[in-house]
Write a structure and sequence with these properties.
Blueprint lengths: L2 E5 L6 H4 L5 H4 L3 E5 L2 H9 L5 E5 H6 L4 E10 L7 E4 L8 E5 L3 H15 L4 E5 L3 H7 L2 E4 L1 H6 L6 E4 H9 L3 E8 L6 H16 L1 H12 L3 H11 E2 L4 H16 L8
Parallel strand pairs: 1-2, 1-3, 6-7, 6-8
Antiparallel strand pairs: 3-10, 4-10, 4-11, 5-8, 5-9
Helix pairs in contact: 5-8, 10-11
């Protein structure tokens, strides 16, 4: 029986899963299913996946699951693909239309608005369409490829990675490989490490492929993969995760388990 793992369908994850499409990856017995972070988390809890690249926030809600070592989707500062947009200053917004695809990004924005802007707006769930979102709320949160490609001209734009770095002085880890405790294996951990190294070494071809898919420049995709993204999971990343966890507790964001 194949091992089923889930990944987000965004540019930032392609270097972590492209190897599974190669002959060696196909022979690993691991099959990749792509979906949004929030849906992947539910599939993991329901047992339909063995492991998934899910929002870091999901690991707080299921501490009985295992964060696999050595791989993450992180950023050292400006992240470009997790952004909030508004016509008015963030300190005075009363509502935010949230792209709820990512549990982590929603929680991170609430923390940053509260601590950096003393703002506590109402959250409105919305599909990731910037114009439609700003028609129903003062601000909008977009993640992934929609967040990166959104046109923020004429708007106030808050890059959540850059804001977190200024506020907390740490990188930010957006997603981790979370595994059901009975499905952890050395072969899975090794495969995810091999896949990461493959993706880093093939960033140019992955960027070319994704540029055609997204309708943007190769340079934009390549710089994003190689300069913006951080795929490691070391001590500093774990410190950032612990800090984010404490702040989620402080702001009462962990009340609802997955």
């Amino acid at each position: 029986m194949a091992t089923l793992i889930g990944s987000v369908p965004y540019l930032n994850a392609r270097p972590l899963i492209k190897w599974f499409e190669t002959d060696e990856g196909l022979a690993s017995g691991i099959e990749v299913i792509e979906d949004t972070p929030s849906r992947l988390a539910r599939m993991l809890v329901e047992g339909r996946l063995d492991a998934a690249l899910v929002s870091t926030f999901a690991s707080f809600q299921r501490p009985d699951f295992i964060v696999l070592p050595g791989v993450s989707i992180s950023g050292q500062g400006e992240i470009k693909s997790v952004r909030a947009f508004s016509h008015i200053p963030f300190a005075v917004i009363q509502s935010v239309a949230m792209d709820t695809s990512s549990l982590t990004s929603v929680a991170l924005l609430k923390i940053l608005l509260a601590e950096a802007y003393n703002a506590h707006p109402e959250s409105i769930n919305a599909d990731p369409d910037l114009s439609a979102m700003l028609n129903v709320a003062d601000a909008a949160l977009l993640i992934g490829d929609p967040g990166m490609l959104a046109d923020g001209r004429g708007l106030r734009v808050l890059d959540l990675g850059e804001s977190w770095r200024r506020h907390a002085g740490l990188p930010f880890t957006y997603a981790v490989w979370l595994c059901r405790p009975d499905r952890v294996s050395g072969s899975l951990i090794e495969a995810l490490q091999i896949a990461k190294e493959y993706g880093i070494n093939h960033a140019n071809s992955i960027a070319q492929e994704q540029a055609q898919k997204l309708g943007c420049s190769h340079r934009m995709c390549y710089d994003y993969i190689t300069e913006v993204m951080d795929y490691e999971l070391g001590d500093e990343h774990m410190e950032a995760i612990a800090t984010f966890h404490r702040k989620c507790r402080l702001h009462g964001l962990l009340a609802q388990p997955l």
